[in-house]
């Protein structure tokens, strides 16, 4: 497999894994959960290093995933007291976990090469160089790992489609018909945590955060149905992956950054041009309405 | 600021850090209230990320790694990001959290692209640009304190002077606009102040600490009071206290200041969320347990009274059967009644003592009064429209109204109305 194809495929898989969950996060108003997770994994990485003296990918992923889950569950617990709004809960939990991690780094691991950038920010450009051999076939590790995550997320969303939908749009109703919103919310957030951690390791935090929020937010401006929203999210995600890679090659710029910028452009386009909720459409509608009112007023005036 | 440093019983650098943390805590506490109450708690996070492209552009434009230039670049980019955030939120159906997320990731992506661009075109001069923004509280200078003091004073002064318009805009923007307040201008102005606070905080204490500094005081103060006019000073106070406590602990333990302040703040929030009077999780839990227990004991007391009234004194087991309650609950309530001296035991069988009978009658009378209130309450002429306290109707309505209710209830029963032979007649 060529390097470029590997990179695009890796990014596409990240976009797919994130795109399956992102719409739910945006609809539930916890879009920033991914950013919280990206910072909260630090103590996990530090703990793995302190306990096992290793920076090998699999133990690091496990350690990070533990703290990612601690983070999302902590946020959910704080939210469920109803004393703290969800955005404030996010802003309280992840700095605390990150602070723990920073203390760990400076106290115990300062001799080792474990600076803050290197730990959570993988780099998508290196994805092709790290391969696993299956018999005679060599596949990039990131593709295998992310493929598994995509499969897991797709299974989760397909199996719990009805439940996720009900708890997202009407938690009170779903409670009355026996679907626990708390349980579903925790499941979803754990899936987000695992997805984010796996993807951080192969493509870096910012691309994951972007892919979890921006395509879903753009799709939210374009669609009114959940299924359509997920489809559009996936489309925008893949478009950002492919176009972003091209742009990065042309301009000799960061691949993850370019993909993020393409996604941001998609959002801006949706914001301006969305047929129903776009700025342009709404401005035209306002103008038409103003004209109608003026015409009606003139008519009434003439009739008198 | 020199006099204040001399005044504190600390060595010079610890005193500088403690004062800096206190000043930043005051400013962030007062401004954070407005971010938290509008569900924009993570605005600090977004601004911290948005500063990166600003730093890059400032570097590209001037070619120098001069502190002031880069800081201005960061502030401008932060302002643009913040205004975009507010704009997206205002003009579209995207909610605050997603708007913040979009701005955060777009700006940071842009920053990364600019960084790679700088790295490929410039020489070694650019090294450390990306970590430039992420400061260390231990590196605070006395000069920085003046800036922070000005910031804190300005923040408090603005909030105090523009308190009423700010409050109106915060809780009801539509109404504020309708009465002619400059809603947009106020919003932009508050956002600008927030941006300045975040950028100063970034440089001196780091991005993540700044996120916590904005949110911790507001959330902790919110658990303790319900009025905005109390909330803001309380948040400023908590911010200062958390900052100083964190700085002192960090100095004593010789660890980095920022993370310790964050952890102290988190502990404060946890404590208030658990313990806050009237609201805290544990407080509510204890009240709920107490109420349940009282309801159980009263219920068993009344059951006992009615059973004794109807036949021979029951054994605990018979009482449980007659009242349909689990035996363990009945046993628990009986032992509570026993301790209060309301029970007399005759072998297995239970009597009520005089005080027990009196208590049972009091409960029954309260219940009768409540039924009377439900049925005839609308006929009373009450001085105000408040709902009375169901657990103690007589005290909250006053003796006159309670007697009037009893009279109405008796009259209703005497009139032989068909349906009301239930609760009221017991």
From TrEMBL, chain A:
Belongs to the ABC-3 integral membrane protein family. Keywords: Cell membrane, Membrane, Transmembrane, Transmembrane helix, Transport. The chain crosses the membrane at residues 6-27, 36-52, 58-78, 90-109, 139-161, 173-197, 203-223, 230-249, 255-280. This is Manganese/zinc/iron transport system permease protein. The keyword Isomerase does not apply. SUPFAM superfamilies: ABC transporter involved in vitamin B12 uptake, BtuC. It is a multi-pass membrane protein. The lineage of its organism: Bacteria, Bacillati, Actinomycetota, Thermoleophilia, Solirubrobacterales. It is found in: Cell membrane. It comes from Conexibacter arvalis. One of its GO terms (biological process) is response to zinc ion.
From TrEMBL, chain B:
SUPFAM superfamilies: ABC transporter involved in vitamin B12 uptake, BtuC (SSF81345), Winged helix' DNA-binding domain (SSF46785). It is a multi-pass membrane protein. It is found in: Cell membrane. Pfam families: ABC-3. Its main location: membrane. One of its GO terms (cellular component) is ATP-binding cassette (ABC) transporter complex. One of its GO terms (biological process) is cellular response to iron ion. The keyword Membrane applies. CDD domains: TM_ABC_iron-siderophores_like. It comes from the Bacteria. Keywords: Cell membrane, Membrane, Transmembrane, Transmembrane helix, Transport. The chain crosses the membrane at residues 15-37, 42-61, 67-86, 98-119, 147-163, 170-186, 192-216, 228-249, 261-282. Belongs to the ABC-3 integral membrane protein family. This is Manganese/zinc/iron transport system permease protein. It comes from Conexibacter arvalis.
